[in-house]
Amino acid sequence: MTWMTIPAGAAFDAWTLPYGVFSTPGEEPRVGVAVGDHVLDLAPLAAVEGLDGAHLFAQPTLNPFLAAGRRAWDAVRDWLIELVTEEPHRDLVEPHLVPAGQVSLHRPFDVGDYVDFYASQTHAENVGRIFRPDSPALPAAWRHLPIGYHGRAGTVVTSGTPVVRPSGLRRVGPPAEGRVEHGPSLRLDIEAEAGFVVGAPSQLGRPVPVADFTEHVFGMVLVNDWSARDIQAFEYVPLGPFLGKSFATSISPWVVPLAALAHARVEPPERSPEPADYLRDAEPWGLDLEFAVSWNGTVVSRPPFAGMYWTPAQQLAHLTANGASVRTGDLFASGTVSGPRPGGSGCFLELTWNGTEPVTLADGSQRAFLDDGDTVTIEATAAGPGGTRIPLGAVTGQISPTPSP
Ligand code: CA
Fold it and tell me: N or C: which end of the chain has fewer CB within 10 A?
C-alpha cells in the first residue's frame, strides 16, 4: 500500500518503480524513478537523506548506478519502497515529485553491445515456414542453444524517436530470374521483445553461469526491433541480419528492475533435448509478461512471454559461454515474442502471414506492413504482488518517409 494517490490510467503503480533519465525545462538530465503519474527526482532526495552513492543519480545516464551492482540496486529499491509506502515520509518525498507531464525523457543508459536472440519457438517456426518453405522450420541448432546475433548498439533509440524507412536491395520476381532492385523497404515490420540491461560487468575469459544472472543483469526494457523484411530476406544468408535490422531499435525510456518482476517468475517450458550443462536452469527465469501491440491505436496482438523457450538467464550464460565479457550498459533482447495461439504474434510478418492476410484497423483501413506515418506502440504488464498485474511501460515509434536522395 502507498500513501500516494495513483490515478486510474497512470503509467506506473507504486511497485514497479522503474528508473529513467529525465529533465525539466532549463535543468540538466538526471535519474528519476516513475511512480504513479509522477517522476521522483532522486538526486536531491538521496542527497537530503545522506544516501551512500547519492551522486550516482545526478548523472545524465543510468550507467554509473548500473555499475554499482546488486547490493546497491537492492538497497536503493528497499529505500524507495519504504519512502512510498510509509506515510511519515510523505513530507520528505512530496517536494521531489515532478508531474510526468512536465518532464522530457531521454535515452536511459548508454548502450554498450547489443545482442538480439530468437527465443520464441512459434516465431522461429513461422519465420522458417515463410522464409525457407523448403527446409525444416526450426534451424538445426535452435533447440540446443539460444540463437542470436550481434546488433548495432549505436542505433538503439528511445521511445518516440521517429523511425526513417530504410532503403536497400531486395529480390524482385522469382529467385530463378535473379532480378534485384534498390529502393525504400516495402515490407517494414516490427518485433515486440523484452530487452535485458547489464549492470555489473563480467571478466573477459570467464563465462557467466546461469546462476549469476541476477548479479549482472539490472532490469528490463521493452524493445521494438524494427525489421525491413524484404531487405532482410535477400541479405541474411549465411551471416544473419544486417541492414534489414540495424537502422533502428527502439527501447522504452523506463528500465524496470528485475526485483519488480519477482512475482512474474514462472517455470520455462520443458526442453528437449536436455540443454547442455552450462545452459541448465539454476532457478526458473521464465517470466509471466503480457505484451500488447497497437497499430495506429488499434490493438492488433497480445503476445505472451511466458512460453519463451530460452530464458534471459540462459541467454546471458550463452553469450558469455566462450569467455566473451559483458559491460555495463550492454543490452540483450529476447527475440520476437510470439505465442502459439491466434492473436499472439509479435511481428506483422506472422500476423499478416507475409502480407497475405491483412489486418483491419479501427479506422477501417487495412495493413499488411507499415505505411509512412504509422505509429506502433508496444506495452506490457507483468504478474505483480497479490495477483495484480503491474505495468512495464511502453515503447512507441512513428514511421517517417525515406528522405529524397
Ligand atoms: Ca529481433
Answer: C
Show the cell assigned to 391. 505495468
CA–centroid distance, 40 to ligand 1, in Å, is: 33
Residue 1 falls inside a structural domain: no
Last residue of a domain, one of 63, 86, 106: 106
Q: Are 150 and 91 in a shared domain?
A: no
Cell of 5: 494517490
**Both 61 and 159 in a single domain?**
no
From the CA of 372, how far away is ligand 1's center (Å)? Answer: 21
Strand partners, 30: 22
The answer to whether residue 254 sits within a structural domain is yes
For residue 116, report the distance from its CA to the centre of ligand 1, in Å. 6
Is residue 14 situated within a structural domain? no
Domain co-membership, 125 together with 229: yes
Task: Say yes or no: 201 and 332 in one domain.
Answer: yes
Say how far apart CA 190 and CA 227 lie, in whole Å: 6
Mark whether 316 and 356 lie in a shared domain.
Answer: yes
pLDDT of the chain along its 405 residues, tens only? 899 999 988 999 999 999 999 999 999 999 999 999 999 999 999 999 999 889 999 999 999 999 999 999 999 999 999 999 999 999 999 999 999 999 999 999 999 999 999 999 999 999 999 988 899 999 999 999 999 999 999 999 999 999 999 999 999 998 899 999 999 999 999 999 999 999 999 999 999 999 999 999 999 999 999 999 999 999 998 999 999 999 999 999 999 999 999 999 999 999 999 999 999 999 999 999 999 999 999 999 999 999 999 999 999 999 999 999 999 999 999 999 999 999 999 999 999 999 999 999 999 999 999 999 999 999 999 999 999 999 999 999 999 999 987
Q: Are residues 153 and 236 in the same domain?
A: yes
Per the CB < 8 A criterion, the answer to whether 111 and 158 are in contact is: no
Q: Return phi, psi of residue 163, to 5°.
A: -110, 115
Q: How many domains does the chain have?
A: 2
* Element holding 129 (H helix, E strand): helix 121-131
Phi, psi dihedrals of residue 47, rounded to the nearest 5°: -70, -45
- Structural domain range at position 82: 19-106
Residue 4 in domain:
no
pTM of the model: 0.97
Among 253, 248, 186, 227, CA closest to 34? 253
Q: Which residues are catalytic?
A: 123
Contact present, 293 and 376 (Cβ < 8 Å)? yes
CA of residue 87 to ligand 1 center, whole Å: 44
